[in-house]
TrEMBL record:
InterPro entries: Gfo/Idh/MocA-like_OxRdtase_C, Gfo/Idh/MocA-like_OxRdtase_N, Gfo/Idh/MocA_oxidoreduct, NAD(P)-bd_dom_sf. Residues 11-140 form the Gfo/Idh/MocA-like oxidoreductase N-terminal domain. The lineage of its organism: Bacteria, Bacillati, Bacillota, Bacilli, Bacillales. Residues 153-384 form the Gfo/Idh/MocA-like oxidoreductase C-terminal domain. This is Gfo/Idh/MocA family oxidoreductase. Belongs to the Gfo/Idh/MocA family. It comes from the Bacteria. It comes from Alicyclobacillus sendaiensis PA2. It holds the Pfam family GFO_IDH_MocA. PANTHER family: CONSERVED EXPRESSED OXIDOREDUCTASE (EUROFUNG), OXIDOREDUCTASE.
Length: 385
């Protein structure tokens, strides 16, 4: 169980984006600093330099380390003996590549929001650069940090589900069922900022990574996708899409991604059907995993209880019966990022060490590209490789 102790000092860490009023900055700051894995020492929090500096001061940072731009921050921090070692990028999509590139060129470890970037070429460039510089790139597919995802992964790897036959995944919320003037949503409908996709890149990459996390042996061979702009003003970006996937193993998957599923609050769920049993997990009920073996009886496995895999209990922060949530899931991933950065035996107390990395980020970018290509040909099958 995690109790906040750590044998190594926190990694000196900065945030780009995630400023005042942003959707995702607060959970990054809470998750990264939760177990003293990272310490926030600097930031370039906002597209508006003065507002970003003011925000940093209000977070209690040294005003000299509240920067107007990420370029200035990387430059000035590189001259300090106590300069930053890692940075999280929580800005809108189109800036991820250039900020990630600049961070790696400054020899920083990077945690990047999804999508990692907007094209396969960019993703390849970042992967090569990270390898060359010996730095990690983590991608914040945050739901994968829930302990019951680790439980599902272990059940699959240990044969409890049998051969994987079918996967049904969904991330279909109703948050954009009507046109909305809300500021954080607006850039998501603008291809110059969001990139070539709305819901595939914004939502679909999450269940896509859950498939990779739970069944790491599966490799997608081809995809077929159709997508729509249900709210017409959002064209050419889709706010709804259906994706069918085939895997090398013969398994098949179907995914529905949508922001116009009227009435649905969050709508992220995944069902994995094997020859021996099915398992099902829903982000709105993340402490539970449904297990349905052939012939029954169906069982709900619950976070924290004896009988779960050791690695699925190693990241608990409170005993069974209590609830943990998304903040803890993200903190789990931040622990794994930190352990990968620090190396050695820190964090090897049965805790999972896998995490969404540059390769996973790149595969998600490739998947979005292939889905768009398929949709442009009326859903024709497109090879993944
Ligand atoms: P937002 O629009 O709410 O906030 C963006 C923040 O970045 C703002 O503070 C803005 O001033 C700042 N910013 C923009 N450009 C900047 C620059 N060049 N330098 C410094 N700061 C800059 O956006 P939101 O919803 O927080 O999304 C940010 C990223 O996080 C997106 O890539 C999105 O896809 C991702 N995201 C990921 C989620 C997840 O579950 N992993 C959930 C929500 C968003």
């Amino acid at each position: 169980m995690i109790d906040g102790r750590r044998r190594v000092p926190p990694i000196r860490w900065a945030l780009v984006g995630g400023g005042a009023g942003s959707a995702i900055g607060y959970i990054h700051r809470c998750a990264a600093t939760r177990d003293r894995c990272f310490q926030l020492v600097a930031g370039a929090f906002d597209i508006l330099p003065e507002r970003g500096k003011q925000f940093g001061r209000e977070l209690g940072l040294d005003s000299k380390r509240c920067y107007g731009t990420y370029k200035e921050m990387f430059e000035k921090e590189s001259h300090r003996s106590d300069g930053i070692e890692a940075v999280t990028i929580a800005t809108p999509n189109s800036s991820h590549f250039e900020i990630c590139k600049a961070a790696l060129e400054s020899n920083l470890h990077v945690i990047c929001e999804k999508p990692l970037c907007l094209s396969i070429e960019e993703a390849q460039y970042l992967q090569d650069l990270a390898r060359e510089r010996g730095r990690i790139v983590g991608v914040m597919f945050g739901y994968a940090g829930h302990q019951m995802i680790e439980q599902a992964r272990q059940m699959v790897l240990n044969g409890e589900i049998g051969d994987i036959r079918i996967i049904k995944a969904e991330f279909a919320h109703g948050g954009c069922a009507k046109p909305s003037p809300e500021e954080p949503l607006q850039w998501r409908f603008n291809p110059e900022v969001a990139g070539p996709s709305f819901v595939l890149a914004d939502l679909g990459v999450h269940p896509l990574y859950l498939i990779r996390a739970i069944v790491p042996t599966l490799k997608i061979s081809r995809v077929s996708c159709v997508r729509q702009s249900v709210v017409r003003s959002r064209a050419p970006l889709e706010d709804n899409a259906f994706v069918t996937m085939e895997f090398d193993s013969g398994a098949v998957a179907f995914m529905w991604v949508s922001a116009v599923n009227t009435g649905s609050q969050h709508g992220l769920r995944i069902r994995i059907v094997g020859s021996e049993a099915s398992i099902e997990w829903c982000a709105e009920d993340p402490n539970n995993l449904r297990y349905e073996p052939v012939g029954g009886p169906p069982v709900t496995l619950r976070r924290g209880f004896h009988g779960l895999y050791t690695s699925a209990r190693a990241e608990d922060r409170i005993s069974e019966g209590h609830s943990e949530g998304l903040f803890e899931a993200w903190a789990n991933l931040y622990r794994r990022f930190a352990n990968a950065i620090v190396g050695g035996d820190e964090g090897k107390m049965n805790e999972p060490s896998w995490y969404p990395d540059a390769n996973d980020g790149a595969e998600a970018v490739r998947w979005v590209e292939r889905c768009i290509e398929s949709s442009e040909h009326n859903g024709a099958w497109v090879e993944m490789s």
